[in-house]
Structure formats: C-alpha cells, structure tokens
Amino acid sequence: MKNHIINLFTCLGAASTRSRILSVLIAVLNLIPAGRLTAQTFTTLHSFTPTSPYGNSNSDGAAPYASLITNSSGNTLYGTTQVGGSSGNGTVFAVNTDGTGFTNLHSFTSTSDGANPYAGLILSGNTLYGTAYVGGSSSYGTIFAINTDGTGFYEPA
C-alpha cells in the first residue's frame, strides 16, 4: 500500500493564499502567540580564553562541543569543553543564565579522571554525570560524576 503525502500549500493555489493560510495555521495551532511576538536579543554569556601554544591549557577551558543543560530552577547552565583547563584536557563548567558567575568546576588531568569530554552532561539531583573520551586507568575514557558546586568528583563503579 502506497502512502501519498500531499503538500497542503500546493493544493491551496496562489502564493498569497499560502501565506494567509500559513499565518492562520500558526495562530490556530498557537505556534507563535499572536500579538505577543517580541524581538529576541543575542547575548554572549561567556567567551572562552585562548589556550597556551604548549599544552592547550588555560583557566576556563576551550572548544565546547556538546549542548548545555540547566538546573531545575533554570538559572544555571552546565557544560564541558574538549580542551583547556589547568592541564589542557578539558573542563566541566557552570555559568548563570545572565552570564555571571562562570565557574570551572573541574579540569581534567588525563590520569585517573580522563580527558577530552566531548559529550554533554546529565543532571540528577545535585550531581552531574558525563563521559571523558580518553584517559583514565585504561586510557580509553571514563564515566564521571561531580556535584554542581564542583565538589565530589568521582568515577562511579
């Protein structure tokens, strides 16, 4: 049995009709609240500092790759950087949604804690969980946990 997908707008005729129908659909489906559309402002919350030419180290990390997560109150963002930090092997960081309070929660050393966290974090209670791509006791990466205040870094067994 063949399924046919029909483009609603090709069935409706002229382009002006399409635009009227589209705006009605947007309003009816409440995709954009009619009359309450405001301009959005792009704001840089933090600019990571350049890494040193030898060892990729800096104070805050560099090259964030994964998406951010927020705490339950929605006022703090958490993320990782692939490189940078005190040993050049990446960081776990926190920053307030207004751009204040940037904190390096952990700098990876590549020894037992791992290095280069490419993936994002998961938040459960006040604990962040994540993975580091390489390093650790086998040099094949780690799974780690750290409290949202930067204390208690460990690798769950």
Query: What is the number of helical segments per DSSP (H or I, 4+ residues)?
Result: 2
Q: Tell me the strand order in the biggest sheet.
A: 1-2-3-4
Q: Structural class of the helix and strand makeup?
A: alpha+beta
| Unreliable runs | 1-12
Biggest sheet, in brief? 4 strands, antiparallel
Report on the structure:
The chain is of the alpha+beta class and 157 residues long. The protein has helices spanning 8-11, 15-28; strands at residues 69-70, 76-81, 91-96, 103-107, 122-124, 127-132, 142-147. The protein is elongated. Mean pLDDT is 84; it is low at 1-12.
Task: Draw up the topology in text.
Elements: H1 8-11, H2 15-28, E1 69-70, E2 76-81, E3 91-96, E4 103-107, E5 122-124, E6 127-132, E7 142-147
Key descriptive features of the protein:
single chain; 4-stranded antiparallel beta sheet; disordered N terminus; 157 residues; elongated; alpha+beta
Could you give a quick summary of the protein structure above?
The protein has helices spanning 8-11, 15-28; strands spanning 69-70, 76-81, 91-96, 103-107, 122-124, 127-132, 142-147. It has two helices and seven strands.
